[in-house]
Amino acid sequence: MKYCSECASELVVEIPEGDHLPRSVCKQCGAIHYRNPRVIVGAICEYEGRLLLCRRDIEPRHGFWTFPAGFLEMGETTAEGAARETLEESGADVEIEDLCAIINVPYIAQVYLSYRARMRGPRHHPTPESSETCLVAPEDIPWDELAFPTIWHSLRFWMADREAGTRGIHTLDITRRPRELRERERSHDSGD
Ligand code: ZN
Fold first, then answer.
1. Domain 1-35 has what CATH class?
2. Ligand 1 centroid vs 1 CA: distance in angstroms?
């Protein structure tokens, strides 16, 4: 952020009085622009024992599989956000049930909330965000083709509960970048 969203003056980065971290501060109007982690809400959607997966038609991770998930919008609850993302990404109408996983990903400043959800009917279809949508049996989840570690871990938690006949709320902190991401960044750094 370079300019103040209140008055359009140029911002400076400094630690405001009484604070302990550098912030973008407007010397003109005094506004302090905080940056905080973003919340991503997702839904592990079940229909007659099968799970709804979407093939991403958008970057990042184009072509990889995910359950519906996306950024929480202003003014909605996390459950509402998960249901909205599901409709947007797959056309499926779901009832959000209980929380399955809370996953912190501090290195990209994200918090993931993955809910369990029940599809109200069998309807789902490709959308501008998903080139393909399908219902898969749990044993057919394409583990090596999932889009993000958060999706992978959420589904693992879901599977473990299913096998144990429980419904837990699982927490996980992913504090290290996956090796693949580190390598991609290194090759960018070296100008590849
Ligand atoms: Zn300002």
1. mainly beta
2. 12
* Non-local CB neighbours of 25 within 8 Å, separated by 6+ positions: 11, 12, 13, 14, 16, 31, 32, 33
This prediction has a pTM of 0.88
Q: Tens place of pLDDT for every residue, the chain, 192 residues? A: 899 999 999 999 999 999 999 999 999 999 999 999 999 999 999 999 999 999 999 999 999 999 999 999 999 999 999 999 999 999 999 999 999 999 999 999 999 999 999 999 999 999 999 999 999 999 999 999 999 999 999 999 999 999 999 999 999 999 987 776 677 767 765 544
Residues within 5 A (CB) of ion ligand 1: 4, 6-7, 9, 26, 28-29, 31
Tokens of 112: 């993931």
- Cα 108 to ligand 1 centroid, rounded to whole Å: 27
Q: What is the CATH number of domain 38-182?
A: 3.90.79.10
The SS3 of residue 19 is coil
- Ligand 1 mean position, distance from CA 15 (Å): 16
Going from N- to C-terminal start, the domains of the chain cover 1-35, 38-182
Return d(Cα 120, Cα 92) in angstroms, integer.
8
